Amino acid sequence: EKKIFVVQGPYPVIRRLLRARGWVEKKLPRATRQLERQRGRWQQQQEEVEEEEEGGDGTEQGEAVPSLGSPWPPEEEEEEEEEQWDEDPDGIHKFMSHLVQDQVPFFFWVNHCSAIDCRQLRQDQVVNHFVGVNAFTTKEGLCFNLRNLPWCDQADPDSFFPRCYRLGAAGERQAFIEDFRLTAARSLLKVALERAGDGLVGMEQLTKSSEGPGERRVPRSHIPHSMLPTVGLGPPASPQLVEQALQVCEQHLGSLRHQDIDGDPLSPCMTGADWDRFLQDYYCVAHEGAGLALSRAQQERCRVLLQLLAERLPQLGMEGNHNVWILKPAAKSRGRGITCVARLEEVLRLAGGCAGPSARVGEWVVQKYVERPLLIFGTKFDIRQWFLVTDWNPLTVWFYRESYLRFCSRPFSLRHLHPARHLCNVSIQKRYRQLQAHLAQVGRAGAWHQVMVPGMKAAVVRALRSAQELVESCKGSFELYGADFVFGEDCQPWLLEINASPTMAPSSAVTSCLCAAVQRDTLRVVIDRRDDPTCSTGAFELIYKE
Predict the structure, then answer these.
(1) What are phi and psi of 321, to 5 degrees?
(2) Where do the segments described as Disordered lie (predicted)?
(3) pTM of the complete model
(4) Where are the beta strands (DSSP E) in 316-462?
């Protein structure tokens, strides 16, 4: 009946469910396991040199689950581990596995696509991986390929994926520098408007109280910069700072309207040296509370300009005003090596000078940090959302209706960029239903079904379509992925990354239940549904089929 399977690593749920369906496991012979251990030790040495541990293609594996390319424990430990995970007290399954050692397996569940040569598979063999998925399961691949989205879908990746740059790619480093500068200029205008709310009240009272009977009040726009009140607690910054930011943003708006194409080319408002001085002043204002001189005319220009920019920049709201970016090693998973940075020179120093233990030069991506996330009791969280691809031609996508939240371990604050406030912790987890209940309590009962879920579905499909031509389709095979999202204050989801081989390790009571369920429902879709198209697919919902 072609019910022979191979499972690599301790996946007790998959083993148990397949055996319950009448499948027999073909275990790797001892000689093969020894060879794999030797290969694993050699590869570990290579990885210690290259620092590309297991995440080179976006793979995210539980630490208790060794891959074929990972170091294997001594034979005694390995056999103890197998006995621990393998529910076979009487040795029946071990005996049956011995009987099928010369038979061809038809179902493979492995940690990594390199464990199986997918190109050599027969048409009736199924594996849980596709070749070429690093086009969207690595930070670098997702960053690059989402830019091709407008060619296959009428959608703007900036509407669901925080803008991202590969610092080692030609031209992208300079593009990031320009983006950082423009974001600083926009942020300064936002800071000026926010502070003017209180500052202008004081100015109105001051000018009114100083007017005598019959005295004419001097218009605020006619007051010299040196006499304007400053908004902010620290010493005032350059009086020309707001004007410089206005000119830069007005020119940027013109380029967004393509005025630089239709008319004469616009000369830059500021040189490199001008930008260096501007950024230092901006840091003083945004990070240290330095005061700003703002006229009424400038205030109105700020308000109108930001409104016009918001119509063309879908990330204007979520980008905040601190200009924080998140720097990530391009080929690592589980948050390793990630840091939040708010100064341009620090980003370039970290990315350009870390040829040592973290990552090689050019292997960094930098992404705009979502500065205005949805918080729960003042704490940031993200969400792990599973989805399943069962075909790439035609593209067929299943979305899992269950998901779980991961919280940071300390309250959110942009004044402190410590990872505990900004990187979510796998040890603090809640189910999505608890998020729904919280949203209902704060008056957003419909946000989950009306905004969050539709937005996550659309982001997943668009990410897959952008990389579709780069993935090798293998009929009958499938792959389970884990997408990570963070939500803005308006509940809009922002895709952070997509992981291949999402960890199934039961790290908490929440994941212990959900990981078992997603494995169960995956087998329903990829095995049971082949024989019975009307069977239950559990929590998986077909959301896209070309």
Answers:
(1) -135, 10
(2) 34-87
(3) 0.85
(4) 325-329, 339-341, 364-368, 375-376, 379-392, 395-407, 425-431
| CA torsion through residues 41, 43, 44, 46, sign | positive
Which residue is associated with the tokens 């005295």?
A: 215
R_g (Cα) of the chain, nearest Å: 28
What is the C-alpha separation between 530 and 442, in angstroms, rounded? Answer: 44
> How far is residue 455's CA from residue 385's CA, in Å, rounded to a whole number?
12
Nearest to 9 by CA among 100, 86, 75: 86
Burial 293-326 (b: 16+ CB within 10 A, else e): bbbbebbebbeebbeebeeebebbbbbbbbbbbb
What letter does residue 260 receive in the DSSP assignment? H
Per-residue confidence in pLDDT tens, the chain, 546 aa: 999 999 987 789 999 999 999 999 998 766 455 555 555 454 444 544 444 443 456 667 653 333 333 333 444 444 444 455 567 878 899 999 999 999 999 999 998 888 888 778 888 999 999 999 999 999 999 999 999 999 988 899 999 999 999 998 879 999 999 999 999 999 999 999 999 873 333 333 333 333 343 433 334 444 444 444 455 555 667 779 999 999 999 999 999 998 656 555 556 888 889 999 999 999 999 999 998 888 999 999 999 999 999 999 999 999 999 999 999 986 555 556 899 999 999 999 998 754 333 444 458 999 999 999 999 999 999 999 999 999 999 999 999 999 999 999 999 999 999 999 999 977 788 898 899 999 999 999 999 999 999 999 999 999 999 999 999 988 889 999 999 999 999 999 999 999 998 988 887 889 889 999 999 999 999 999 999 999 999 999 999 999
Q: Does the N-terminal peptide bond of residue 157 adopt cis geometry, omega within 30 degrees of 0?
A: no
Separation of first and last alpha carbons in the chain: 31
* β-strands 425-431, 540-545 pairing: unpaired
Element (H, E) at 378: none
391 φ, ψ to 5°?
A: -165, 145
Distance, CA of 377 to CA of 103 (rounded, Å): 57
**CB-count exposure of residue 253 (10 Å: 0-12, 13-18, 19+):** middle
Q: Which residues contact 372 (CB under 8 A, 6 or more apart)?
A: 317, 318, 320, 488, 489
Q: Which residue has the tokens 């500052």?
A: 199
Give the amino acid at 253. L
**CB of 470 within 8 A of CB of 114?**
no
Can you tell me the distance from the alpha carbon of 109 to that of 513, in angstroms, rounded to the nearest whole number?
20
Please name the amino acid found at residue 36.
E
Cβ atoms < 10 Å from Cβ of 218: 12
Q: Which two tokens stand for residue 478?
A: 């499938």
